[in-house]
Structures are given as C-alpha cells and as structure tokens.
Design brief:
Number of domains: 1
CATH topology: TIM Barrel
Structural class: alpha/beta
Bound molecules: zinc ion
Strand order of the largest sheet: 3-2-1-9-8-7-6-5-4
Distance between the termini: 15 Å
Strand content: 5-15%
Order of helices and strands: EHEHHEEHEHEHEHHEHEH
Length: about 290
C-alpha cells in the first residue's frame, strides 16, 4: 500500500464519528450529542436504547442542529429464535427501528444478526433464519431509504451474538439477497472484528467493487485482551495496522465517516467523557 493512497486524518475530525458506546452510555443522548459536537467531530452513531428512551424527532433535530450527521444506527434485534413467534417479533422490532433510523437520517442501520438460539446446535439453521430475516427487512429498508449494513463479528461471538463472522461471508449474503445491488444492502467493516482475517484485503477490494461498504468502525485489539466484549482498545494501543486498513478501505472507494467504537468497561468507560473524546480526536488524527 502506498503512502499516497492514505489521506491523513489530521484536521479531518469532521469526517470522524463517535459511536456513543465509546462513552459507556453514562449520560442521556441529548447531552452526549452536544459533547461530541463540541469536541469537533462531524458525526455520531447512537444506540436504540438511547434513542428509544427519548423523542426520536426531537433528537434527530438536535443532532442536525449540532451539525452532526448520523454514521449509523445501532443496532438490530438479533434475528434467530427457536420459537416462530419470537422470530417474527424480532423482525418486527427491526422494522420499527428502521423507521427511527429514517427519522434520524442514518447512513445505515447496523445489523448485528444474532447467534445460535439457546438450546439449539443448528448453526446453518440460524444462518438461514438470518438470511430470511434480512431479505424481509431489505424491502422495508428500501421503503424508508436507509440501507442495511451487515456487520460480521469476530468468530468468538458465533454462539451468542453473530453467526455472520467474516467479510467474505457477508458479501456472499449480500450477493445472494441483493444480486442487482440496489444500494440498500452492504457491510460495516469493523477493524476489531475483521483484522485477523487472512482474506481481508481481497474481500475489502471485492466489497468496494460491489459498492457495498457502508461503514468503517475503528478501535484496537489489545495484545492481551481480557474480555472480548468489553476490553476493546483505544486506537494505537493494540495490534491492528489501522492506517494500513483504512488505506485498503479507502482504496476500495469508501469515502464515508471513520467511526470510533470502543467498549471498555474497566478503562475508557471509567474516564471523564470529555477526556475520552479528546483522546479519540488525537488518536484519529495521528494513528488511524
Ligand atoms: Zn462495529
């Protein structure tokens, strides 16, 4: 990868987004919005629990008035279930969330698809349920004008969070469910989940070729991760070649926001919120 292919993010905070999970969900969204805007970022990725706790129209106005765009809306209700009624309820919950995503003007609705239902050993069955659910949601996504971003999760989460585990797998599903490329089904590439994949480079290129890259999430994988869910690292503190990865994503044609998403129960979630934002801003501009 040539240096010239990577635009430095120095001075480009407006291109950067903060996923509100990074701040530990310690304050209401209306306060978080102001903090993120004041820190100079150009975008935000809120979570449903925060939005649904308030008035989505008022929050949407506040976000826009603060000069922020919405890089993504987090996230889908898990799709697979043993009980058909529960499965139906999961799909319906996602349809309602898509309406809110539209009110927020989100660039995409982030799909974390769900794992294997408790009591089941049917991995392929769970994957089939996800594909069926995504097919149904795709029609709604087109109606409301918000694309679905399938986010493959690291395979360590295959049992309890996502039976979708690599970028290649996500792209296969996109091609199967949306063969003509409507623009309403693509992928979210999260450095934390994808960095280890020996096939990542070619799959990023393929995702770009198919115009399917809807989001790019950054944090870092700490060398001695203590908790795969809640011990994500700040950019620059771990093993991921973040400039190299961004270079590949942008060489594939992605020009959207770079979104920071850090779950860190014992470290960053305990620090002062404005300090965390300031470290994010610094690291984005120096090591990403
Ligand atoms: Zn992510």
């Amino acid at each position: 990868m040539s240096i010239a292919s990577v635009r430095n993010l120095d001075g480009q905070l407006k291109r950067c987004s903060i996923n509100t999970a990074t701040l530990g969900h310690r304050e209401p969204l209306r306060i978080t919005v102001d903090r993120i805007a004041r820190a100079g970022f150009g975008a935000i990725a809120p979570w449903r629990s925060e939005v649904e706790a308030g008035d989505v129209h008022a929050l949407s106005r506040q976000i826009r008035d603060a000069g922020l765009s919405v890089s993504g809306y987090c996230r889908s209700t898990y799709l697979p279930a043993l009980d058909p009624e529960e499965r139906r309820a999961n799909i319906e919950a996602n349809k309602r969330a898509l309406q809110d995503a539209a009110v927020l003007g989100a660039r995409c609705f982030v799909m974390v698809v769900g794992g294997i239902p408790v009591g089941s050993r049917d991995l392929e069955g769970a994957r089939a349920q996800v594909r069926d659910g995504v097919a149904e949601l795709l029609a709604v996504a087109q109606d409301v004008g918000v694309p679905l971003a399938l986010e493959p999760l690291h395979p360590v989460y295959a049992a309890n969070r996502s039976v979708l585990n690599s970028l290649g797998q996500a792209l296969q599903w996109c091609e199967a469910l949306d063969p003509h490329g409507t623009g309403f089904l693509g992928v979210a590439i999260d450095a934390y989940h994808c960095w280890w994949d020996p096939d990542l480079g070619p799959q990023i290129a393929a995702a770009g070729q198919a115009r399917r890259i809807l989001a790019y999430h950054v944090c870092d994988w700490l060398h001695d991760t203590r908790d795969v869910l809640l011990d994500r690292g700040m950019m620059g503190d771990g093993v991921i070649d973040l400039p190299g990865l961004r270079g590949q994503v942008e060489a594939a044609g992605y020009v959207g926001p770079v979104e920071v998403e850090i779950f860190s129960k014992d470290n960053w979630w305990k620090k002062d919120v404005d300090d965390v934002l300031s470290v994010c801003a610094h690291r984005l501009q120096t090591v990403c």
